[in-house]
Amino acid sequence: MILSMSQQALQFIWTVAIGAAAGVVFDFFRLIRKTFKHPDFLTQLEDFAYWLTVCVLAFYFILHKNGGEVRIYSIIGIFVGMGLYFATLSILVMKITTAAIELIKRVIVKTIQLLLIPVKLFIKLLGYPARGIKNTATNAAHGGKSLLRKTNSYAKMKAGRIARDLTIMRTKY
Q1: What is the 3-class SS of the chain, one letter each residue?
Q2: How far apart are CA 121 and CA 112, in angstroms?
Q3: In whole angstroms, what is the distance from residue 137 CA to residue 129 CA?
Q4: Average of pLDDT values for 147-160?
């Protein structure tokens, strides 16, 4: 199929647009990677999905617009479109969307923290009676002394008795 120069130029412009669209899709995958940390095998799966999408898009264009003929300017146009996008708009798009995502994350975290304030207060208020009950039960069970103090004084009494018994034994024998 013979194309005029104007038709070839129009197809080249379309392939540049396809390349830029491929760059936008790649930036989408990069944003997902930046926002949500995930294992390497998912990254490889995303890359495979990306390149499959780009190849299908390019094949579809070549099949329908070029009559199935692979023309070098179509392939060059895709790479030129990707290169132009990554050299110009990608930097701006990534900065803006990353800042927007970080802002959204901060808003969500602050909102959750604000919503949890009544819950934390309620738990703290429930803690006061629970501590009072625990202290009352501990005091009642140990006759007013904590178990540690009671054990410590019992050990001192035993040590004192043993020392006295040893002294008596030394003096007698």
Answers
A1: CCCCHHHHHHHHHHHHHHHHHHHHHHHHHHHHHHHCCCCHHHHHHHHHHHHHHHHHHHHHHHHHHCCCCCCHHHHHHHHHHHHHHHHCHHHHHHHHHHHHHHHHHHHHHHHHHHHHHHHHHHHHHHHHHHHHHHHHHHHHHCCCCCHHHHHHHHHHHHHHHHHHHHHHHHHHC
A2: 14
A3: 12
A4: 66
DSSP 112-160: HHHHHHHHHHHHHHHHHHHHHHHHHHHHHHTTTS-HHHHHHHHHHHHHH
Residue 50: HSE in the Cβ half-sphere, 13 Å Cα cutoff = 18
pLDDT (average), residues 109-136: 79
CB 12 within 8 A of CB 77: yes
Tokens of residue 154, six digits = 């019992």
Query: For the chain, which residues make up each domain, given as ranges?
Result: 5-87, 146-173
Q: What is the pTM of this model?
A: 0.60
Q: What is the pLDDT of residues 100-122, one digit of tens each?
A: 999 999 999 999 989 988 888 88
pLDDT tens digit sequence for 42-89? 889 989 999 998 888 888 888 887 777 778 888 899 899 999 999 999
